[in-house]
Design goal:
Largest sheet: 9 strands, mixed
Number of helices: 12
Shape: globular
Helix content: 25-40%
Strand content: 15-25%
Order of helices and strands: HHEEEHEEHHHEHEEEHEEEHEEHEHEHE
Length: about 425
């Protein structure tokens, strides 16, 4: 049985699988559009199921639609080692975000089969449902229900922009399983993901050893002004929700900059109503995204943004309400698993560095119920959530090799 530096996955098979899946739900510029609970999502799930069953795994599906493909271990009493990520994408997503982690998990099992490796603990490859949150907010919804952060009723009631509910759409595509969400127990959880940032590429490192994940608040503001003609309404008589929004956006930038280092903030989504070129908006809805690995700083930023937004709106006579539509506290990943990842990178001779995840991942919720950690792969220019997202086959393989070593060490090789 190969050991040490000789123990590696099949890089061509991993790469080919990634790009075969990308043929389902293609974007318009080379990326992917498999938003959660769409027909394309269902088709991608079926392909993943066929691959897993061909690799000797059995499939379970929970009530949120999360897929769990299990390779048995030699000890029926041993808790499984879980490894995975997500297959759903942004509307204009890349080919690698999430997909890399799921298919690298599958590749580990395929490579174990090739090499005749067995482990005491079962290995479960996971495709978490609705990680992106692009169609049904909040992000990481299914893993959040699994970890007890959200209720199943709350998740089923989430609606997309067309008013369709998560529960109805899950049933429509035929992927609502029978397993009680969260009933499964984990020995450990690993997630492999592209960095979605520029640090690893800039530092010329092949492996990101993820030690922490930033905390996050998504704050959805609703500003209520008065619709009026843009040409005939005097400036001093306007109740301009659009102007209030603009001042709040600038304020969010100021708050983030004044909380450096290690804090970010911005606005990525906004909706004007009636959204006509010559009508002042009566309603503006937009989402503020703030993140930092420092919990106290995160809470201070939220409090200041909400207070100053209310003051800005009041000064203009605009109504202001806010709803927290997404949140998780900063996460410190399990130090034993982190050290296993680091040691695997060193054994394999891959350059590596510690890194804090700037994005949220299912691992953040998994860490609430089991020891968990992440591995990151560089991506070109740090670009993600974009059809131009790009990695190399060599980068993908390096992280998958490290994942392979860390997972089978944790699952305990037999023989």
């Amino acid at each position: 049985m190969p050991t040490g530096q000789n123990l590696r996955i099949n890089p061509d098979r991993l790469w080919d699988s990634i790009h075969e899946l990308a043929l389902i739900g293609p974007g318009i510029a080379g990326g992917s559009n498999r938003q959660t609970l769409t027909d394309a999502d269902s088709e991608g799930r079926h392909l993943f199921q066929r691959w897993c069953e061909a690799a000797g795994m059995s499939l379970g599906v929970d009530q949120m639609g999360t897929m769990f493909a299990t390779l048995p271990g030699t000890d029926p009493e041993a808790l499984p080692v879980y490894v995975g990520s997500h297959l759903d994408t942004q509307p204009t997503g890349g080919r690698y975000d999430g997909v890399l982690g799921v298919l690298a998990g599958l590749e580990i099992v395929r490579s174990m089969n090739d090499l005749g490796i067995r482990t005491r603990h079962p290995i479960v490859v996971v495709n978490w449902a609705n990680e992106e949150g692009a169609r049904f907010a909040p992000a990481m919804l299914a893993s959040g229900v699994f970890a007890g952060v959200h209720s199943l009723d709350y998740a089923y009631g989430r609606k997309d922009p067309d008013g369709k509910s998560y529960g109805d759409e899950l049933a429509r595509i035929g992927w609502r399983g029978d397993e009680t969400v969260g009933a499964r127990k984990m020995h450990a959880y690993f997630e492999y993901h592209i960095e979605q940032g520029p640090i690893l590429e800039a530092e010329a490192r092949q492996i990101g050893v993820v030690t922490h994940c930033q905390g996050l608040w998504w704050l959805e503001f609703t500003l209520t002004g008065r619709e009026a003609h843009t040409g005939s309404t005097p400036m001093n008589l306007r109740v301009n929700a659009g102007l209030a929004m603009a001042r709040i956006v600038e304020m969010v930038q100021t708050v983030a900059m004044e909380n450096q280092p290690g804090a970010v903030g911005g606005v990525g989504q906004m909706k004007f109503a009636p959204n006509s070129r010559n009508v002042l908006p009566g309603t503006v809805v937009f989402t503020v995204d703030i993140r930092t690995p420092d919990l106290a700083k995160l809470d201070r930023m939220r409090a200041r943004i909400e207070a100053e937004a209310a003051a800005i709106a009041a000064a203009l006579g605009v109504g202001c309400s806010v709803e927290a539509v997404g949140h998780f506290d900063p996460v410190t990943f399990d130090p034993v698993l982190v050290e296993r990842v680091r040691r695997a990178a060193e054994t394999l001779g891959y350059s590596h560095m510690n890194i804090i995840s700037g994005a949220g991942h299912d691992a953040c919720w998994a860490a609430k119920v089991a020891p968990a950690t992440m591995i990151m792969c560089p991506c070109v220019g740090g670009l993600s959530h974009n059809e131009a997202e790009e990695i190399s086959k060599e980068w993908a393989a390096a992280g998958a090799d490290v994942l392979f070593h860390a997972v089978i060490e944790t699952a305990e090789i037999v023989g």
